[in-house]
């Protein structure tokens, strides 16, 4: 007979286990993970922590009146907000969050700062407010299982902002006018039809809600407009979700003319003026590029002029529309050199600016520029403990897919004398409707510092390369999308960059899916693999998406596959259904609270492989979601990953 106290302890343990997401019996023991972590150790100049430490000072912003600046820095290992008066050497910490980093923040007026934070990675971001001296703190959206987004920060109205919130229905976001002092909420439009949900809202320059778009029949988008808030919205045009206009902002007179990014009747999106009354583009495009989509347009709120456009080919570029803004850029470039330079914020008078630099080998620095005095002051290096001379160069590359597509990407080589026959990490991005860009990537630099070459590729479906390139990915998970990744591996082998026996694949989210697909459908190609919050089963993935993704489910069926009409296709592309093909050593990493890729996606792979007596290291963090944000969790996961690669790839570089 069991001892009563032992039985009670067992029942408590069982109850606790039942509250944990996923199967609590699956994660690898601390001792086994420590063995991997031990393999990551070596005589390296930079420990793993140096690549993933919370910066002491980053995300600088200017107050609207230009008298203070704010930044984010660590307090008890969590990113919190600090405020400093310009000209003073003393900063005041105004938040004390200890469970989770502050995800984002902004100045709502000269005195009050708003910030957002979720809980344990659940991505239910709530809104908080605090005065610049740290007083008058308030939870503005004290609701459970609710997510907010910012529709308009109402720069000219000090006491209010407009937010979207799914408080009434988890699938639908409705707009509210929010008093940032009292927390009083006023709903200013309805969004009650889950069959035809409104999925975006836009205000004019006076903060009036006048544009919206809704999903119709699951795969169409209808643009809505009204001249005044007192009127009902009326339909402007309906298009298939593959094409349409993305409203950016109103003409400065708040007429019916809106600046948009449009791919109507064209492959690449362009910047053009659009008349909401006629549903037609007005005049010729303001800017277009033959190789990539263009969607970013900037303006001066004070002077009411367009200032510039940015677009991303192999690197970020600017096209200026305003002499003053172009002169400012030239002034900054004159002093700051060859770094990428962009203005992160300004005061309302637009005579004081916060400036950020970066490169592929540096997270750069923040500077304060005072136009009146023409003084440029360096405020802080983002990661001063890393010397860019020690970091590896990220080179834009191209190769051809087997069916003739040009695949753009980036190759980072370790700093070795003869970069041939190297161990390589293939690193497909997440999304998949996203793209990799040039710049400092701590994961890539960590791996390069350990002797690995890293290849990142923008496979078909990656955004920014036009509609045709995007649509070529539809229903191609694990098929031609995966072929593009495989073709990158073969290109590296032909170029004699990669040692064919020492190639690994690692990715997160869709990149995690591509990792699993790589070791499932090309089992002889990779020596080892790391799957980070990756999809393993397309059927269960569709069933466990967040409620606010449900309006887009028909679009996902079009892009990924319909579980009923495309069941064979989806089964063929689901690694969890073909684990008998997997023989590559695999390491799986997952956040238990992930709202996008449910923990069951990782549990399925681990459980299936272990039934075949295949050891799969499995790291689960129960205070994380879709990616690890807490500093200590990043340290542990990357140390274990580096140890796993060292075990199976045996890099030549020892330090």
Structure write-up:
By secondary structure, the protein is an alpha+beta fold. Helix 2 crosses helix 13. The longest helix has 19 residues, at 631-649. Residues 1-18 have low confidence and may be disordered.
Brief write-up:
It is built from 13 helices and 35 strands.
Topology (elements, then pairings):
Elements (H helix, E strand, L loop, with lengths): L3 H16 L10 H10 L8 H5 L5 E5 L5 E8 L2 E8 L5 E3 L10 E4 L4 E6 L8 E6 L6 E2 L8 E5 L7 E10 L2 E8 L5 E3 L10 E6 L5 E8 L3 E6 L8 E7 L4 E6 L6 E6 L7 E6 L4 E8 L8 E5 L4 E8 L3 E5 L2 H14 L3 E7 L5 E7 L6 E6 L4 E7 L12 E7 L5 E7 L9 E5 L15 H8 L3 E6 L8 H5 L8 H15 L3 E11 L1 H12 L6 E5 L5 H6 L9 H7 L7 H6 L13 E6 L7 H13 L6 E4 L9 H19 L6
Parallel strand pairs: 30-31, 30-32, 32-33, 33-34, 34-35
Antiparallel strand pairs: 1-2, 2-3, 3-4, 5-6, 6-7, 7-8, 9-10, 10-11, 11-12, 13-14, 14-15, 15-16, 17-18, 18-19, 19-20, 21-22, 22-23, 24-25, 25-26, 26-27, 28-29, 29-31
